[in-house]
Structures are given as structure tokens and as C-alpha cells.
């Protein structure tokens, strides 16, 4: 059914509202409640109504979207850079629309968060405030009162805030796009329980973050459920800097080491650097994220499996969801999980060559 006054009339009659109300909803204007808006959009979709979003966006003032992201560091290419690549991929697809993108970068090693806070404050205090949506990524996303207050003020301005990767509570923001860490942990625990054929200790290497790590928690629970004879020993290492020496010493100090699970790419790389020089005599080693070094390790048998959390998809979906919300008036989901995949030796090369598709 093509776009016409008759179609708007039919939608209005079905919804029990005026044509003006239907027009406002379909063109993304304010003044209608969320429940009514959803009902009108559903009816319009059922009746085959199609909006030329590109033409509509060109008639309006430009939309402004801001990205707050860490600068690439020595190890950023294993995960963080892939998130950014996904963002830029969808940005390319949205170039025909009337949207202005602004990227702000803070130092990756800024653990004090001073540069990160400064960027957010500058965005919020711009006069006039002109951003229609904000996307944020931070490996150490703060949970302190100043940050949460700033987020509340932005959301209070009805500015959608999309958080990428991890955060302690999705309800604090407009939308959380990140890996399903619970599923990642369970997948790794299931693999570990099947690969390890003796009792002993499983070293679980996770990152130091200021809130509960669902990947670590899910792994330890699932492993205990499946294998009572295996002891899960949890170790948290910082994400920044080189962890090679500390990880090597840690593993060498476990006499009955039966398996290793590294929940992030940087710790996986640290394990591989150690494995070139010493044999830890484990039954199973599971890493995280698929990159050239982890793929080579799968091919050579140093790694038994990789849990890939699809960082490229995280960046792509974050911008796509915000774009659809701003341009097509689609609601933002509170939580949009990216489901991880299991990479083994047999499928590693296939996924390495097609990981961004």
C-alpha cells in the first residue's frame, strides 16, 4: 500500500485517532504517548504503509550523533578497534541521510577517567545543546555518582544514550548493546567440562572491572554444576598494560592445572606469549575473540577453542539501533545482547576471513 492520504485515514480509523496524530507519529514528532505511538506504528506496518525515511530526513534539520570512544592503543586491535570498525561500517550505510556524526576520543590508558569525563561534560554543556543521540564505549565504565548524575541529566533532556559492551545496570541508560557474557561463560564451561578428563584446577582469568563480571560468574557456576571434581580458581588482571609475566607466574604456580579460560582478548594473547616458551600441561585452553594470533593458536593446537563475542557486531548494532530510533522512530530496546559463537580449529579460518559479515 503506497503512502497517501487515504492510507493515513485508514490507519487513523483503525487506531481510533485523528489523521493528524497518525501523521505526527509516522514522522517522528513529539506529542504522543509511547503506547499510542507503538499501536499506530504496528497498525501502519500491518497495513503495508511505507515511509520514505531518506526523503523525510532530507526535509528536516540534520540529526547530530556523538560517539565517545577510546583512542586505539597497542592491543586495541584485538577487540576495541573492531567495535569501532563496526560503528564506521554502519555510518557508511547511513551517509545518504541528513546526519552529522562527531567522534570524540579519549586516551585508552586514562584510568582516572578525567579525559572521559571532560568530553562528556563538554558535550552536555554545549550551548545550544544539539545532539540527538550519544554512543559511549569505556572499558572501565564508571559507576560513581558524578557519572550517573550526568547520564540522568542527558536522558532527562530526552537524549538517548547507547552504551556499548559492558555496564553494571542496563536500566541506567537508554540502551545497552554488548555481548551476552552469561552465555559466553556457560559455553566455555561446557567445553571445558568435556575437554578435561581428570580432576584438578581450572584457572579462570578475567579483567579487573568495577562491577560483577557475568562471564566469570556464569563460567564458575556452570563448571561446578557439570564437574564437581574441578576447582575453579578466579584471577582478575588489569586490561591495560602487558600481562605476560604476571599471567605466566600465576599459571606456573598451580601444580594441578587442568585447564585455562581467558575471558578477554588481551589475556588470551598473554597466555599465547607464555605458551611459546613453556608447556603448562593442561587438558584444555579456551581463549576469547578471534584474531590472527588466536586463529594461528587454534590451528597449531595451543588453543582448543575461542569464545568470540563479535565486537564488530557490537559497534554496528549500536549505531543501527540509534539510527532506527532517530530516523525511523523505532523504540530503543533496553538491552540488545550480541550472542557469542564458539570457534574451533575446523571453522577458525572460515570465521577469520568473514568475521565482519
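Q: What amino acid sequence fits the structure above?
A:
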Amino acid at each position: 500500500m503506497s503512502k497517501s492520504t487515504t492510507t493515513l485515514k485508514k490507519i487513523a480509523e483503525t487506531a481510533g485517532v485523528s489523521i493528524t496524530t497518525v501523521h505526527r507519529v509516522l514522522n517522528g514528532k513529539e506529542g504522543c504517548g509511547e503506547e499510542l505511538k507503538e499501536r499506530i506504528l504496528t497498525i501502519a506496518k500491518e497495513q503495508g504503509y511505507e515511509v520514505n525515511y531518506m526523503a523525510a530526513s532530507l526535509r528536516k534539520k540534520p540529526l547530530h550523533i556523538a560517539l565517545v570512544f577510546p583512542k586505539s592503543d597497542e592491543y586495541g586491535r584485538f577487540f576495541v578497534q573492531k567495535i569501532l570498525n563496526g560503528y564506521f561500517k554502519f555510518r557508511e550505510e547511513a551517509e545518504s541521510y541528513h546526519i552529522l556524526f562527531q567522534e570524540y576520543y579519549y586516551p585508552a590508558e586514562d584510568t582516572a577517567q578525567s579525559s572521559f569525563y571532560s568530553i562528556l561534560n563538554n558535550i552536555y554543556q554545549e550551548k545550544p545543546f544539539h545532539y540527538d543521540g550519544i554512543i559511549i564505549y569505556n572499558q572501565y565504565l564508571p559507576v560513581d555518582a558524578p557519572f550517573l548524575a550526568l547520564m540522568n541529566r542527558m536522558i532527562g533532556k530526552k537524549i538517548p544514550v547507547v552504551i556499548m559492551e559492558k555496564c553494571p545496570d542496563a536500566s541506567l541508560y537508554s540502551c545497552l548493546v554488548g555481548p551476552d557474557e552469561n552465555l559466553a561463560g556457560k559455553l566455555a564451561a561446557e567445553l571445558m567440562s568435556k575437554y578435561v578428563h581428570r580432576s584438578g584446577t581450572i584457572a579462570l582469568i578475567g579483567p579487573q572491572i568495577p562491577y560483577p563480571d557475568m562471564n566469570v560468574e556464569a563460567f564458575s557456576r556452570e563448571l561446578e554444576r557439570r564437574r564437581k571434581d574441578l576447582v575453579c580458581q578466579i584471577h582478575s588482571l588489569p586490561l591495560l598494560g602487558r600481562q605476560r609475566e604476571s599471567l605466566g607466574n600465576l599459571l606456573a604456580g598451580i601444580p594441578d592445572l587442568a585447564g585455562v579460560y581467558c575471558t578477554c582478548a588481551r589475556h588470551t594473547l598473554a597466555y599465547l606469549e607464555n605458551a611459546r616458551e613453556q608447556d603448562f600441561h593442561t587438558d584444555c585452553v579456551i581463549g576469547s575473540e578471534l584474531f590472527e594470533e588466536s586463529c594461528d593458536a587454534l590451528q597449531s593446537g595451543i588453543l582448543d577453542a575461542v569464545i568470540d563475542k563479535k565486537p564488530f557486531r557490537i559497534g554496528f548494532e549500536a549505531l543501527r539501533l540509534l539510527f532506527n530510533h532517530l530516523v525511523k522512530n523505532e523504540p530503543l530496546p533496553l538491552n540488545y545482547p550480541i550472542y557469542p559463537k564458539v570457534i574451533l580449529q575446523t571453522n577458525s579460518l572460515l570465521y577469520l576471513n568473514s568475521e565482519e559479515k
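Q: And what stands out in the fold?
A: The chain has three domains: 5-51, 58-178+311-338, 181-309+345-352.
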